[in-house]
Each structure stands twice: as structure tokens, then as C-alpha cells.
Amino acid sequence: ILMTFDSSTETVAILYDIENAPFEMLDYTLSKAKKYLPCRMIVVSDWEKRPEQKRWNRLMSRPGFTFRQIDRKIDGKNSLDYALFDMAVLLRDEGVRRFFVITTDSDFVRIADILREGDVPAHIIGVGTEQASQVLRDAYDEFYCYPPEKKRVKAVQTTKSAKAVQDEKEAKADVVGEAETKPVKKKRKAKVEPAIVAAEPA
Asked: What is d(CA 20, CA 17) in angstroms, rounded to the nearest whole number?
């Protein structure tokens, strides 16, 4: 049974497609959602289908978050998709205007269309992996890639910097080596000719 609850434009809803996104992506998204605190956070998914995720109990004890289990009205393929779509409509009708959608499934472009209906369209933030299609990325107002792309770029830059430092050291070593092996030319002293002094007549 879908339960109704108080919402507002300050509430953030997090729709988690647990079948197409690893558990770590939810934890990552919660850290992103913290910037909206003290807004109320509502996390929606169907974790009863994935009882091996033992971290749910610890996660649900976090202050400031409300976790909602949703019921699937149908079974089989895409049953979670439809349940999340229904929850998105419920939250939108209750006034929620900011959503995080965690998935790499392009079918969730439909959620963006649903949430933009009405007089006040929602602000939608997608969270997906590199495999997320460009169509899915473009459907959202913002999109975060997991693992974070910035960290990978930084690692590459660090590697390049280390290589640059090594190249610089090798270049300096070459210069020093050349200086040590190159014969040193001594400066020749200028030959001083003896001065000829004319004798004065007696």
C-alpha cells in the first residue's frame, strides 16, 4: 500500500532503481543530497526483493532521511520501474519538486517526462554509471556519474605530474653529466711583453 505523507517544495525525493544500480550508488547519492539539508529526504525503493543488502538497517537509521518501501502492483520485467513511476506521480502531486533518480536504465527517461508535467515542473538530478546513455543524461536537469569522474581525472593528472617531475629530474641529471664529462678549458693568461725604455743621452 502506498502511504501518503507531508511533502513540500523543500523536500527531496530519491528514487532508487535497485535492480540497475549498485548499492554504493545510493550511499553516494545520499552524500550529494546532504547539500539540501535540513530539507526532508525521502528514499524510495523495493529492498525486500534484495534481502542480501544487509546494510539497509544501518542506512535507514540515518537522521534526516525517511525510507519508504514500495509495493509492486505487477510482477516480472519492469515491475520496479512501474512502481517507481507511480511513486514519482504521488510525490509530485503532494508537492515535491526536487528528485534524485538513481539508475542507468534508459526507460527512466519516462520519469523525467512525468515529473515535468503540471504548472511547476520538478528539478530532476540523475545519478548513473558511465554506461548511462546520452538520452538518459539529457533527460535530467543535472547528472552525476558514478564513480565520480573528477576523481579519475585527478588521478590521471597526478600521474602526469609525477611523470613530468621524473622527466625534469632526468633532464637535470643529463645536464650535470655533460658538465662533468666536458673538458674544462683554462683561460690563457695574456703574454706581457717587457717594456723597452729608451736611454736618455748623457
From this structure: 6
Cell of 59: 542506512
Look at 123 and 182; give whichever has higher pLDDT. Answer: 123
| Residues 57-82, mean pLDDT to the nearest whole number | 80
188 or 26, greater pLDDT: 26
- Apex 81 CA angle, 75 and 86, nearest 5: 95
**Rounded to 5 degrees, what angle do the CA atoms 176, 181, 184 make?**
100
pLDDT at position 116 is 87
- Which residues have a Cβ under 8 Å from the Cβ of 99 and sit 6 or more positions away? 12, 13, 14, 15, 88, 91, 111, 115, 122, 123, 124, 125
Q: Which grid coordinates belong to 118?
A: 503540471
Alpha carbon distance 112, 89 (integer Å): 11
DSSP code, position 36: G
User: Is pTM beyond 0.90 here?
Assistant: no
Tell me the sheet residues that pair with 16.
102
Cβ(68)–Cβ(94) under 8 Å? no
CB count in 10 Å sphere of residue 145: 16
From residue 18, alpha-carbon distances to 5, 14, 124, 190 in Å are: 23, 12, 18, 90
Under 8 Å between Cβ of 73 and 102: no
